[in-house]
Amino acid sequence: MFKSEKFIEETIKKIRQDIKGRTLIAFSGGVDSTVCASLVNKAIGDNLIAVNVDTGYMRKNEPESIKKLMEHMKLNYRFIDASDMFFESLKGVFDPEEKRKIIGENFIRIFENVAKDEKIEYLVQGTIAPDWIESGDDFRDTIKSHHNVGGLPEDMNLKLIEPLRDLYKDEVRKVARSLKLIVSEKQPFPGPGLAIRILGEATRERTQIVREACDIVEKEIENAAKNNNMELPWQYFAVLLPTKSVGVQGDKRAYGFVIAIRAVQSIDAMTCVFSKIPSDIIEKISNKITNNLGNKINRVVYDITNKPPGTVEWE
After folding, report:
1. What local confidence, expressed as pLDDT, does residue 158 receive?
2. Are residues 167 and 202 in the same domain?
3. Number of domains in the chain
4. Most CB atoms within 10 A, among 16, 103, 206, 283?
5. What pTM does this model have?
C-alpha cells in the first residue's frame, strides 16, 4: 500500500544524493510539478529555480495564478513569456504527434538558455507513470508522445531528475495532500496546453476561441458541483474541432466551428469513463458558448467516449 509520508521522506533523501548543484524545475502549476517543486525545494532550498513558461496555450488567467502560486510557495522563480516562439513554431502544423514534439523541444531549449545563464546542471520534471507508458518504448506502442517524454530532444545537455516517475495520479495527489499543497485537487491540464485541444492548426485566433470555451465549461461545471447539482468530474474542458457546420443566428445563415465538451471520471489517468452531466447543465454550457463566441461557434456536442477506446484529451 502506498504511503505518502514514507515516499516524501525517501524522495527528499534521494534528491539530496542525486543533485549536487543548481537545479531548474519545469513548473506548470499543476499537481505533478508543484509536488516536485515542493520536494526538491525541501531538499536543496535556494539551489532550486522554478521556471514557468507561458506558451500562449494556457487557460484564461492562468499565468497570473501560477505566479501567485510560486510566490505563495516562496520559490526562487523565473517567468518567461515565450508565446510568440510557440505560435510561430506551430504554424502549419496539424499532426498531434508533431505538435507535442515541437512543444517539448521548445520547452527544453528555453530551459537550456536559463540553465546556461544560471550555471545549472539539472532539470527536474513532474513526469509520472502514465506519461512514459503512453509515450511508448521498445516494448510498448506509442499512444501519444507526452511532451516531457517523447518531446525531449536527443541532444539535451541537462541531467534529468524525475522524482514522481513511478507514481500514478492518485498517488501524486496523496503526496500533495500530505505536503498540504493548495493544488492537491486541481484538475489535470496537459503540458502542451490548449494546443492539443485544437484539432488542426493551433493559431492565436483558434486558441482564443477554445480558451473562452474551456473557461465557460470549467466555471459552469464547478458551479454546478458546488451547488450539489452534479459530481465534480476528474477532468473537464472544451475541444475545438476543425470542421464547420451550418447554423442560424437570428434570421441569418451562420457557418461556424464546433465545440466538443469533454468531462471524465478517473483515478489513475490510465482509464476513465465519461461523466454523466445533467442535461440542463449541458444546455446552459452550450447556450453560453454559442452566445459568447458569436458567429465563431454555432454547434456544441458532448463526448460520451470512455478510455479506452478514446483518450482523455482528443490529441
Report:
1. 84
2. no
3. 2
4. 103
5. 0.86
